[in-house]
Amino acid sequence: MKKKLAIALAVVMTAGIMTGCGDKADKQTPDTKESTETSQETVQETSDGSGEDSAETYVYLKDINVEDYLTLNGDYKGLTITVDPKEEATQEQIASLALQAYNNSVTAELGGITDRAVALGDTINLDYSGKQDGVAFDGGTAAGQQLTIGSGSFIAGFEDGLIGVMPGETVDLNLTFPDSYRNNPDLAGAEVVFTVTVNFIYPSQREEMLDVVIETLTEGEYTTVDAFMDYCGEYLEYTAENNYQAARESAVLTELENIAVFEDLPTELVSKYNVLVMNSITTEAAGYGVDADTFCSYYFGSDAATYAQQLAEASTRQGMLFQYVADKEGLNLSDEELDQKMQEFADENHVENVEDLLENATKEDYREYFMFKKVVDFICENAARQ
Fold first, then answer.
1. Are 224 and 217 in contact (CB under 8 A)?
2. What sign does the CA torsion over 182, 185, 187, 189 have?
3. Looking at residue 259, what is its pLDDT?
């Protein structure tokens, strides 16, 4: 998406990933009106990024006889599926999101403060790397992170140690993790050194948005504050729907996995998902200016190869479970139904030509994507009444 404010909106929605060396929330990549990606449910990219051209050498779920690998010790009809209702955005939430995106955009456009030292209460942008006995530890490295000094987001001494530091300056902070530190028991009571660079200080947050600034930042797409507020409402609505559908899928998978017995996993399918996961990790990591291992170490507590293999095996099991139900219940898509679904998907995501959907995915990827949704709907419709 080309619009600066819309990009800032995505940044706001993905903030909160990093709270020092504390809890790490799941990173979301919410969709917008001009994107074809759909968070966790996104249609998978092919291993070489060539879309339809790689289909001949690419294995799909439909190519696997899932009953050779999988049996169910129970009926997939009548499962108990529990999902919280979809959250509805309030006017206060919409206004807060819009103002955050607005302020972040203005800061990105005009730049942060670099001509004075950090003070208590400042919100700063920083890079840091933590080491124990000279060795980087899991979750101790990040770049371009936002921190409010005095918020208590980091371990004791971290934020105080940055008071008086000038933007552009790098300092070493000798700190000790508390004995009660739970996020990584190996670090409880450990003495560590954080090397921290302060990039800039965020300007004071503006409490009022201006039409002329909105128009400039969105390159004319939104000319008034009200128009941008409407867009923020749509954005939150889309995100809430996406999260709700993801929760339904997760609940269905959990219940199916509880009755599933896997004798083995098809290696070609695991390998396919491994490549997809590694591609995704590498892309995500590059967006944060770090390598794949650093990214996975921070967010998942593992190196990239280990995490990719674990997720590939999990994806294989989940995909096979969906395919099992689809085969039993006749939920696989015909070519005609697939074309219709792809057209609807393109229209919903403001993609002018269906062919554009095939730049990074094949039609078979979309066939699986829509089949997954049909299976989730079927399981939920046939779930036990509560």
1. no
2. positive
3. 96
Phi-psi region of 189 (alpha: psi -120 to 50; beta: other; left: phi over 0): left
* 70-96 pLDDT per residue, tens: 999 999 999 999 999 998 999 999 999
**pLDDT tens digits for 165-189?**
999 999 999 999 998 887 777 888 9
Helix (H) or strand (E) holding 216: helix 211-217
Give the model's confidence band at 9: pLDDT under 50 very low, under 70 low, under 90 confident, else very high: low
From 342, 102, 345, 334, select the one nearest 228 (Cα to Cα).
102
Domain 112-201 in CATH 3.10.50.40: yes
- The reported pLDDT for the residue numbered 22 is 34
Strand-pairing partners, residue 170, are 197
User: Domain residue spans in the chain?
Assistant: 4-18+26-88+224-381, 112-201
If you ran DSSP here, which 8-state letter would residue 190 be given?
-
d(CA 137, CA 146): 20
- Residue pair 239/13 in contact (Cβ under 8 Å)? The answer is yes
Q: Where are the beta strands (DSSP E) in 255-328?
A: 260-262
Q: What is the pTM of this model?
A: 0.65
Q: What is the pLDDT of residue 5?
A: 54
Q: How far apart, in Å, are the Cα atoms of 6 and each of 9, 13, 15, 285, 329?
A: 5, 11, 14, 21, 41
User: Amino acid identity, residue 164?
Assistant: G
CB atoms within 10 A of CB 348: 13
How far is C-alpha 374 from the chain's CA centre? Answer: 23
Q: What would the pLDDT profile of 295-314 be if each residue is shown by its tens digit?
A: 888 778 889 999 999 999 99
Q: Of 238, 269, 276, 277, nearest to 361 (Cα)?
A: 276
